[in-house]
Amino acid sequence: MSSQTFKNAFQGFDPNNLDLNAAGNWPIGIKIVVYIIVMSVVVYAGIHFYISEQHTQLEREVQKEVQYKQEFESKSFQVANLATLRKQMEDVEGTFSELLGQLPTDKEVPGLLEDISDIGRAAGLQIQVIKLAGERKEKFYIELPINIEVKGTYHQMGQFVSGVAAIKRIVTLHDYTLKPTDDDMLEMVISAKTYRYDDTK
């Protein structure tokens, strides 16, 4: 975009005389900036409130498993309560096993990266980067960060985020940036994370 075109896009806009009622008459440059800000807030809200729920649930169930194991060991001598404690353990282990089944194994991680790439391509995005970063050990699990860079329209990025949220494996999205490109597209850099249970604990 030439400097003259850039100036024309903002021509006639007075920041000291900002009237939201006349937003339809704002220069195209200001409309684009406001649109990008609003869309960024919408994407962030979606990621924050919906995609992170699976990660929170996994941590909650891991903590429950540890808690019930401790209770089981401390009360195992009480024969009267043993049947109840066993039932609680079975319930928690069933839920935990179900969530554990949603975590990829070492052998499945490359396939997960391919699934994310396929979702991006199906949404019409140009995939620039999808690669694993260094893993991080947490208390009960190992975090596997994935660096993602894609290019496309806002609608295509919305489809991509929804598609990643629907993957049967637990994948959460974090720390994204959106910026416009010279060809009227958007470029998004976002960090995805998947998790592997640390069975050495």
UniProtKB/TrEMBL annotation:
Provenance organism: Neptunomonas antarctica
PANTHER family assigned: FIMBRIAL ASSEMBLY PROTEIN PILO-LIKE PROTEIN-RELATED, TYPE IV PILUS INNER MEMBRANE COMPONENT PILO
Transmembrane segments: 28-51
Pfam family, one: PilO
BP GO annotations: type IV pilus assembly; type IV pilus-dependent motility
Keyword Membrane: yes
Keyword Transmembrane: yes
Keywords: Membrane, Transmembrane, Transmembrane helix
Protein name: Type IV pilus assembly protein PilO
